[in-house]
Fold this protein.
Amino acid sequence: MSSIVDSAAAIKNAIDTGIAPSYGTPAKRIKQLVESYFRIKNEFISEISPPEGLLTSSRPPEIYQSGSGSSEEYYHSDDLHAISDEIGILLSVWSSKNSRGSRLSPRPRRVFLSHGRDAAWREIQEFVERTLEIPTLELAQEANRGRTIFQKLIDESDNCGYAVIVMTGDDFTLDEQVRARENVIHEIGYFQGKYGADRVCLLHENEVNIPTNIQGVVYIPFPKNGIAAALGGLTRELKHL
């Protein structure tokens, strides 16, 4: 799969994960994803070369405020679904064109580490690199080179072939449920699209709320302040790399 197609697939999965089931989706949750798609859209369509008339061209969705005195901005969820559907159609065309006789390049033997505020991920990085002898990549440890965070994620994730996501309880919802940071939730969907669900492993702290629209990913639970309990399961998942 080409880099631009890879990126579009990952953006679609992350948008699908971030869309709220209600009428409006908070813009802060998904704005970078939307902007990233419209930056690469023309190149993506050029790469796919879809039949003329296939697409109903989506446009950048408008942002609105709730009007209840709050300054929070929203997208209409239907507009986000339209973007996701467009990407899905293009990916289907690409898949059909490349289904015969195609050979995918081997994925790099490197693990992308995604995490929230909790420093438990450092224990995972040390274990994967020193014990399993598999190189890792953690986004903050890479040079920015003038890139936005999401562009940096797109670029650097090309250098890996598997994602380990450490999901810890860093935030609370309005009804006091413990949840992971928004970036962690988005990256689960992103890596599902980029690598495939079978190449994403979620290390999940007990009691942390898991989004219901994430499917097919391996979950390895661990108790709070006890991420070492996940090392055995993680070893089994990574032994094939």
Notes: Residues 171-175 have pLDDT under 50 and may be disordered. DSSP finds seven helices and ten strands in the chain.
